[in-house]
Amino acid sequence: MARGLLLALALIAPGAAAQDVSRGQLLYETHCIVCHREGLHERQNSKVATYSDLRYQVERWTKETGRRFTPDEREDLIEFLDATHYRLYLQARPDKKT
Q1: How does residue 8 score in pLDDT terms, banded at 50, 70 and 90?
Q2: In terms of pLDDT, which residue wins out, 96 or 25?
Q3: Over the chain, what is the mean pLDDT?
Q4: pTM of the predicted model, to two decimals?
């Protein structure tokens, strides 16, 4: 029984992560791209070197703009930016905040 449950969770997890990235992309394209051009995330002197840096920058600019993202939406933005630009998922990172 436990083995079957673990297998089911393993099969579900990749789809859930992909949906978070997709929703993050939609949020980014809807609310963030107005001020951000794509090259911003790939500049040499990026302020993002760790997953904590990425989270800080997303939270910082969310407050600066007055946009009210839910905690899940912020995590989706972070996942999108990580998957498409920073690739910090290759590093060990702290658990997600909620």
Answers
A1: very low
A2: 25
A3: 75
A4: 0.68
In three state form, how does the secondary structure of 13-40 look? HHHHHHHHHHHHHHHHHHHHCCCCCHHH
Residues sharing a CB contact under 8 Å with residue 52, sequence separation 6 or more, in sequence order: 93, 94
Contacts of 32 (CB under 8 A, 6+ apart): 61, 77
Q: How far apart are CA 71 and CA 80, in angstroms?
A: 14
The mean pLDDT of 36-62, rounded to a whole number, is: 80
Length of the chain: 98
CA distance 72 to 84: 18
Mean pLDDT of 2-24: 54
Q: What SS3 state is found at 92?
A: coil
User: Would you state the structure tokens that stand for residue 5, as one six-digit string?
Assistant: 């449950």
For residue 13 the two structure tokens come to 């997890």
